[in-house]
Write a structure and sequence with these properties.
Keywords: Cytoplasm, DNA damage, DNA repair, DNA replication, DNA-binding, DNA-directed DNA polymerase, Magnesium, Metal-binding, Mutator protein, Nucleotidyltransferase, Transferase
Structural class: alpha+beta
Catalytic activity: DNA(n) + a 2'-deoxyribonucleoside 5'-triphosphate = DNA(n+1) + diphosphate
Radius of gyration: 23 Å
Number of helices: 13
Shape: globular
Order of helices and strands: EHEEHHEHEEHEHEHHHHHEHEEHE
EC number: 2.7.7.7
Number of strands: 12
Distance between the termini: 28 Å
Largest sheet: 5 strands, mixed
CATH topology of the domain at 247-344: Dna Ligase, domain 1
Strand order of the largest sheet: 5-6-1-7-8
Site (Substrate discrimination): 19
GO molecular function: damaged DNA binding; DNA-directed DNA polymerase activity; magnesium ion binding
Length: 369
């Protein structure tokens, strides 16, 4: 039995260069200048870059050393996550003025389902415009938005007219929009997958759409069904206001490599304190504890154990981390340590599965967007 694509009105709101824009907002002397939020040391990493810095090729997750080489005038600013969280709360408050179906992805972006909304406004395009105006008025910051029939298309669309713009892809234009899009602009297609698709002659959405389900499944495994569906505008994942946490973690990268377990224990105590704080804030406990170790040669090792009871206190976390630390000798000095708690005592929710592709058909529907 063929099933039409469910049509919803989804908005993806994405703040423009959020961390960097907050720093420029709070310090007008930084306005219009290339800035990077993060560290400039050999261990430093760029968390965010202003649009002025991006013109030089500076990007998030880039090393501070490389960023400095790309832009001599780059100004590094230490991150202030409490401030970013404070503004994020103001922005989410605005979202809830329009709908309770808000799914935050991070501090600076979220999905909103406005199919039915508190304003009674039939136009998702106008709602997105109003939301962006309110964010500007309340925070002084710019936001971009994508509006379409599902989360995937809305997220892809929010990048089209950045910064400080929005793009609506109504139902009747979804297929043509996706067909003409460069495959690297598909959300979820990273650098590695992009190169892999290029090797299969897939450069645009149209190229992807021409591949059969069997072909995609054969060459891309389980992801094949996902790609087969999304290029046809098919995605049944709803906007989920609440996420069930699967794990909670904290980690620290050190300025100097550590070779002594005594010093490691000191660092792990601080990390365990943070993990316990996050567990208690989320009102959960966990059974599985994992110690993450990154050595000076960048090799990564994890050591885990599952307990008979749920724990959330710092003392119990640290006690078990000690066991993991001394489980075997370190093979080298250490540059990063992390602790994570999983197997949490919250109810696991079933993942929504896309229906088999043969049960779905392309549709061209008219709807007020």
């Amino acid at each position: 039995m063929e099933t039409p694509i469910p049509i919803r009105k989804i908005i993806h709101v994405d703040m423009d260069a959020f961390y960097a824009s907050v720093e420029q907002l709070d310090n007008p002397d930084l306005m219009g200048k290339p800035i990077a939020v993060g560290g400039s040391s050999k261990r430093g990493v760029v968390s965010a870059a202003s649009y002025e810095a991006r013109k030089f090729g500076v990007r998030s997750a880039m090393s501070g050393v490389l960023a400095r080489k790309l832009c001599d005038e780059l100004i590094f600013v230490r991150p202030r996550f409490e401030r970013y969280a404070e503004i994020s709360k103001m922005i989410r408050k605005i979202f809830f003025e329009f709908t309770d179906l808000v799914e935050p992805l991070s501090l600076d972006e979220a999905y909103l389902d406005v199919t039915e909304n508190k304003k009674g406004n039939p136009s998702a395009t106008l709602i997105a415009k109003e939301i962006r105006q309110k964010i500007k008025e309340k925070t002084g910051l710019n936001a971009s938005a994508g509006i379409s029939i599902n989360k995937f298309v809305a997220k892809v669309a929010s990048d089209i007219n950045k910064p400080n713009g929005q793009k609506t892809v109504p139902p009747e234009e979804v297929i043509s929009f996706l067909e003409t899009l460069d495959i690297k602009k598909f959300y979820g297609v990273g650098k590695v997958m992009k190169e892999r698709m290029y090797r299969h002659g897939i450069f645009t959405g149209k190229d992807l759409k021409e591949k059969s389900f069997e072909y995609l499944e054969e060459h891309f495994g389980k992801s094949g069904a996902y790609y087969y569906n999304i290029v046809r505008g098919i995605q049944h994942s709803k906007v989920k206001p609440e996420h069930t946490r699967k794990s909670l973690a904290a980690e620290r990268t050190f300025n100097e490599n550590i070779s002594s377990e005594v010093f490691m224990l000191e660092k792990l105590e601080n990390i365990a304190t943070e993990v316990a704080r996050r567990l208690q804030k989320s009102k959960v406990a966990g059974k599985t504890i994992t110690l993450k170790i990154k050595y000076s040669d960048f090799t990564l090792q994890t050591r885990s154990k599952t307990l008979p009871l749920y724990i959330s206190s710092k003392d119990l976390i640290l006690e078990n981390v000690k066991d993991l630390l001394f489980q075997e000798k370190m093979k080298d000095s250490v540059r990063l340590l992390g602790i994570s708690m999983s197997n949490l005592n919250n109810e696991a929710k079933k993942k929504e599965a896309n229906p088999p592709p043969e049960q779905s058909i392309d549709v061209q529907l008219k709807l007020d967007f």
